[in-house]
From TrEMBL:
Protein name: YtfJ family protein
InterPro entries reported in the protein's UniProt record: YtfJ_HI0045
UniProt entry keywords in alphabetical sequence: Signal
Signal peptide range in chain numbering: 1-20
Organism: Photobacterium aquae
Database matches in NCBIfam families: ytfJ_HI0045 (TIGR01626)
Amino acid sequence: MNKKTLLCLLATLLPCTAFAHNLNVGHPIPSATIADKGEILINNGDIAYQNWSTDQLNGKVRVIQAIAGRSAAKEMNAEMMAAITAAKFPSDSYQTTTIINRDDAIWGTGSFVKSSAEDSKRDFSWSSMVLDANGTVQKTWELQPESSAIIVLDKNSTVLFAKEGKLGNNDVEQVIAIVKQHL
């Protein structure tokens, strides 16, 4: 391989490494706390917010969907989320946690992102929904902007799988298999 070909190859790979997350399989999820907004709760039919922390993830196998506050990011892994719903994992040992980064929304759409997150909580009341007003999780986990990440954790919050961007069919099957194996 000549120098020019090698340089072109390296140049195409650099953008991929520039936004590498810091979620390492076999290691605990990096600690994060969200104080501005946080976990969305339903109290007597009304929406409420409470501080949220990764400390709350212990005890259940989880799939975390960390998404930018954009419809394109939400749709990016809709097939993954549909597969999880279809799998009907037991709620006593499994939970999906969706973390929506309102700070990574198209300018002027923050209120729509908030109301959409609240509507999703009403529609999927058993799921954990977290609204991250300041992008704390994205910054802490070094996630790509305008994207979606799928992370699988065991009951001790150890990362079993982490991938950003759209998951392929093999990835979806792998996530479902990992969750089943750890329930």
